[in-house]
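RECORD TYPE: inverse folding
INPUT: structure tokens
STRUCTURE:
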């Protein structure tokens, strides 16, 4: 699996049991499998270092699953 930087905004998707995600600047949605509590704020801008992961099954059925390896929140301008 590859590691990469990701910059985007946090959002909450109300599907199934609900889930937090990141929408990058191009509109792609990423679904962290280990979303830290500090990042669970609708609209927060974040800079992440992530690893793409494979899942055998997910009840969410949206977004590309990633594992957050490191993160920074960005100041609101």
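DESIGNED SEQUENCE:
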């Amino acid at each position: 699996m590859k590691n990469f930087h990701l910059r985007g905004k946090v959002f909450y998707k109300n599907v199934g049991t609900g889930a937090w995600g990141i929408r990058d600047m191009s509109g792609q949605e990423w679904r962290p499998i280990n979303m830290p509590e500090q990042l669970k704020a609708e609209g927060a801008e974040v800079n992440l270092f992530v690893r793409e992961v494979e899942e055998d099954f997910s009840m969410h059925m949206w977004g590309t699953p990633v594992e957050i390896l490191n993160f920074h929140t960005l100041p609101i301008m």
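NOTES: The radius of gyration is 12 Å.
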